[in-house]
Amino acid sequence: MSCETIKVHVEADKVGVITLNRPKQLNALSDQLMDELGAALKAFDAEEKIGCIIITGSEIAFAAGADIGAMAQYSFVDAYKGDYITRNWETIRSIRKPVIAAVSGFALGGGCELAMMCDFIIAADNARFGQPEIKLGVIPGSGGTQRLPRAVGKSKTMDMVLTGRMMDAAEAERAGLVSRVVPDSQLMHEALGAAIAIAGFSRIAVMAAKESVNRAFEGTLSDGLMYERRLFHALFATRDQKEGMDAFVNKRAANFTHQ
Ligand code: CO8
């Protein structure tokens, strides 16, 4: 796959790594970048050997938001009719394999929203998160007002969205936005460690776990609990469940075949 705004490679034969690559614009998320990102995510999702995907940026920026230069002159009609800057933003929601955001530097506006669309965020200690759209005369447009409160609550979300201030990595970890913070030099090592571990588990169980956790943000508790129970029961139809439990009982390493 030929890409101009992202780099794509495979680690350990089972982890797909996508690196956002518009360094001069601090990885601002252009339509082209979002198209290429969506295509790369779909390709990794469809590739049998891949068990987990990482999205990362540079040391300076994960992504500094949607491309302000490109959208500055758009009218409402342009934006609405062309589905401008929205059309490929939700592709990531359709990805069934886990997606980790490995965030270093700025994750602002659409960059913060992109990180939040991932299944979890591992942050470098220099990471900074923010929804500064208010300073541009607009509001977050790709989930910032919806996913951020689910992650950090109303008060901190209102603070971030209304003042446009940034949150550093330590505050983001305290608030529950990120799952771990590591020294910047360790970011990819840490993210790859998590991704390789995930890719070694039963792919069916991993996808079911992701689906079930995401369900917690969609409906009622009783619906979510029922959904989880049904998936849990269904996993007893897989060979991987037999293998995983047999391996535990017989004190050996499990060899999952994703069936
Ligand atoms: N878009 C385009 N170019 C950008 C962006 C951006 N978001 N951010 C930085 N750049 C460019 C700068 O213009 C500059 O280019 P040049 O060298 O040609 O002048 C280069 O990157 C470096 O930037 P700075 O010189 O500003 O670097 P600093 O270190 O001084 O500052 C900051 C770094 C703080 C990150 C600063 O660049 C900044 O504030 N950037 C804008 C952040 C922002 O407002 N992001 C939100 C954008 S709006 C948005 O994301 C809405 C999302 C809605 C999604 C809807 C989808 C459905």
TrEMBL record:
PANTHER family: ENOYL-COA HYDRATASE, MITOCHONDRIAL, ENOYL-COA HYDRATASE-RELATED. InterPro entries: ClpP/crotonase-like_dom_sf (IPR029045), Enoyl-CoA_hyd/isom_CS (IPR018376), Enoyl-CoA_hydra/iso (IPR001753), Enoyl-CoA_hydra_C (IPR014748). It holds the Pfam family ECH_1. This is Enoyl-CoA hydratase. Its EC number is 4.2.1.17. Keywords: Lyase. The keyword Lyase applies. Belongs to the enoyl-CoA hydratase/isomerase family. The keyword Lyase applies. GO terms for molecular function: enoyl-CoA hydratase activity. It is an enzyme of class 4 (lyase).
